[in-house]
Amino acid sequence: MTPVPPVSHWLQTTRARLTLLFGGTAVLTGLAIGFVADEVLSRHLTELSGQSLMNASQPIALALSQGMLEREREISLLSHLPMVTRPDGYGPQLQAHLEQIRQSYPFYSWIGLTDDAGVVQVATGNLLLGQNVSQRPWFGAGKNGPYVGDAHDAVLLDKHLRESGSSVPLRFMDYTSPVRGQDSVFKGVISAHVNWAWVQDIIRRSSPASVARSGMEVLLVNKDGVLNAAGAVELPRSALPILPSQGQFQVMSWGESPGQRYLTGLVPVPSQTITDLGWLLVARQPLDLALQPINQLHSIVAVLLALMTVMLVGAAYWAARRFSQPVEKLADAARQVEATGRFAAVDFKTETVEFQHLRSALQSMTQGLIDGRVALERANADLEHRVQERTEALHQSEQRYLSILEDQTEIICRFDGGNRLTFVNDAFCRLFNFKRENLLGRVWAPVVHPDDYPQVAQKLATVTPANPVVVVENRVFAGDGRERWCQFSNRALFDDDGQLVEWQSVGRDITERRQLEAELARASDRFQDLYDKAPCGYYALDRHGKYVHINQQTLSWLGVGREEVVGKLGVADFFDAEGQALFAKFFPILQETGKIGPLELILLGKGAAPRRVSVSATAIRDAAGEFVMSRSIMYDVSELHAARQALHTLNQEQQAMLHNDLIGIAKIKDRVILWRNPALERIFGYAPGQLQGHTTEEMYVDREDFLAFGRDAYAVLASGQHYRQQRRMRKLNGEEVWIDVNGVALNADGESLWLMQDVTAMKQYQQQVEHIAFHDSLTRLPNRLLLADRVAQALALCDRTGSMAALCYMDLNGFKPINDQYGHDMGDEVLRVTGQRLLEQVRANDTAARIGGDEFVLLLTAVIDPAEITVAMGRVLSAIEQPIDLGEGRVVRVSAAVGTALYPQDGTNAADLLRRADQAMYVNKGHVSAERSR
């Protein structure tokens, strides 16, 4: 007997195992509590750190969004400046103004203005001047409205603007807006390129001071990926890990350092501009820095757990010793009984009732074992004799059974519950070309086609003791490597407890049968598909006109199922009254002659719109020549019929359109009129037939206008597009008229069709409405609406240039007595003269407006020194106080009380400035009245 090492022996004792059980349970409970507390605190700290990340990122996102909105508004305001929209070109003032704007904002790299063809007309630093930028994305987008472009390279600007010695290419953002003339016609695009350093400057200024100390990084992500400080894509979007949802945070790993985990938050940059760039701010912080305070907690918890472990193990050992002493005594007594065979060894005193019962039971069991040993020896001798006899009989029966199985042509096998083969016959070995000894003990699955194995396994799993047989047809791989189809009848064998013991499977090769079935199914499917999915209706009618056969296309037109019509209804049941009459007339003819059609009838399907169909049919007869059924075909000719009707209607409509009296129409080739309608000659004042064969040059204002129109219009027609424009043209008597010209190329021979409409009255009315909407009807000065727009532009200009603006509110003194004494007509004359004098005294970039009654407002812009306002208002007041001659010896005088508000000192918006100027005017008006009373 091999001696047991002392330590291993002690570990196998009840005392040791109870000690390990009690101590281990207590220690594991303490560890679990410590780990749960650590996890809860770690999650709480992670939540606090994540909220800190989000709070630090949101101001940056808002600052970026607000910055883009300010640049977009600034460029949009520039596009509406009078010096940009005026029709007589661009002066040097615009170049200086753009330079001043670029210098006012350090991140403007380039500001330029193009014409409608994309050629740069004005640009800061004269960069790209005369260059065609029509292929640039910002020009194409800027034609349709304000546009903000994401970070991109600009090769030409980079070559001019990159600092000497720098190897980092510059990247820019685009802000563009369309420029339209005072007639609302598209003139070009104004664009500003902002250096990408603007984004980094906002991130730096908006980031809290604690960001750098905490190790937090702020990354900007656009549609392409993570952008670095130069605006280039540092990490493509496809290489980014799965980021948290917007406004959320989570702990995650990044690709550049898989072992390093980060606390990561995601904040969207709000889109306040028309173009949504889809920017995202990703803030991340190394998890070890975010959870640094928890490390101290880990140390404290570890010390406490160690002390608790020592105490609990000591208590567990004491308790185990108390529980194990009776068991140890019983074990010693059992060993003595085994060695001596005497009962006295079991006779000892125990303190607990349970161990006393166990001692008594052990005494009784020992006596029973001694008595049973003798009886067992006699039974074993008898059993060995019976087993020998049964074994010989079983061997003889098995030999007979095996000879029957080997003679079978079917493949037979048996396998256990683990699918391992326990028996195969010769037919099985021949089919799979294996020797029997190489098959037994192996699973049968490899010979089954892998696509069929799931089905086989599923069916085998359905057997029960009540239904032990399942038949499966599946593919197998024969010994020559070919696929064969086999049918297996599988019988499951269960024991008395209903447990699966073994399977018996009998199979036969059905490959040829399956091939024939597959070929027959394919042929049937092909013919049925041709019949059902034909683009026309096929059907057969018996001698009574009822459906015998019908394809799916016909059923879809009728809106019914096959079982609803076959043998029950006929095609006439789905015709209108006229169609039913035609069917009653021609169906007997089909039975007699064997052919009818094509006939056009109206088919009324169930739940469908009426359908016009064309029907033809031939007869099928039996050997005696009697009619059996029809062979009918039906086409849907609804569209063809509608097209014929539409073509007739279209011809009539075209004749009415071409000879209308409102729109002139002409067919032109090489600028010569080949055909014209009477309306064209009426519009231009020509007699009937007078324009035929004439050149169109005599319809234009002058030859230059004629040539310019040819260059613009025919280039558009050559590109395959329509050309449309409103322009001045000339009638026969020399009178100029506004014509809406719309043209399209007809063919490659140079012929084109032109529609012309006189819109002179509409143009005149439009100009009058625009002037009335923005000007005072009496003085012709800007009204309150136009003043508000110019004040907004002036304040934006002040913000860019750092200058001031003044709003001067004026109220006339002495006007009411004049109005009362001489009447309202003379009062109106005084207001007209006063308005004209104000207009003469202000600069071109200033505004004089009348806002009601005898109240006027002056807007003075580009003010550098407040003293300029005093000088200007002195000049204005002096001009107002000059005598006004009303005729017939009536000479009057007026003066004005003025209140001034200075931007930005007295207010930051138009409403505040106007209110402060009004208050100052009333104070001044009281002062003036007091002086006059003295």
Please tell me about this protein's structure:
The protein is of the alpha+beta class. It has 27 helices and 32 strands. The strands form 7 sheets. Strands 8-7-6-11-10-9 form a 6-stranded antiparallel β-sheet. Strand 22 and strand 23 (672-676) form a beta hairpin. The longest helix is centred in the first third of the chain and has 65 residues, at 14-78. The termini are far apart.
- The total of beta strands comes to 32
Whole-angstrom Rg:
52 Å
- Strand order within the widest sheet? 8-7-6-11-10-9
Number of helices: 27
Mean pLDDT, rounded to whole units? 83
Apparent shape? flat
Structural class: alpha+beta
Largest sheet: 6 strands, antiparallel
Helix content: 40-55%
**Poorly predicted regions:** 928-934
Strand content: 15-25%
Cα distance spanning the termini:
140 Å
State the main characteristics:
27 helices, alpha+beta, flat, 6-stranded antiparallel β-sheet, 46% helix, 934 residues, single chain
Short description:
With 934 residues, this protein is α+β, with helices and mostly antiparallel strands. Helices cover 46% and strands 25% of the residues.
Give the secondary structure arrangement, pairings included.
Elements: H1 6-11, H2 14-78, H3 82-85, H4 92-104, E1 108-114, E2 120-123, H5 137-142, E3 147-153, H6 155-161, E4 171-180, E5 186-195, H7 197-206, H8 210-213, E6 217-221, E7 225-227, E8 233-236, E9 249-254, E10 257-268, E11 280-286, H9 287-290, H10 292-340, H11 353-406, E12 411-416, E13 421-424, H12 426-432, H13 436-439, H14 453-460, E14 469-477, E15 483-494, E16 500-509, H15 511-532, E17 537-541, E18 547-550, H16 552-558, H17 562-565, H18 577-593, E19 595-603, E20 611-621, E21 627-636, H19 638-658, E22 664-669, E23 672-676, H20 678-683, H21 703-718, E24 723-730, E25 736-745, E26 751-758, H22 760-774, H23 784-801, E27 804-813, H24 815-822, H25 824-841, E28 847-852, E29 855-863, H26 867-880, E30 884-885, E31 891-892, E32 895-903, H27 910-933
Antiparallel strand pairs: 1-2, 1-5, 3-4, 4-5, 6-7, 6-11, 7-8, 9-10, 10-11, 12-13, 12-16, 14-15, 15-16, 17-18, 17-21, 19-20, 20-21, 22-23, 22-26, 24-25, 25-26, 27-29, 27-32, 28-29, 30-31
Helix pairs in contact: 2-7, 2-10, 10-11, 24-25, 25-26
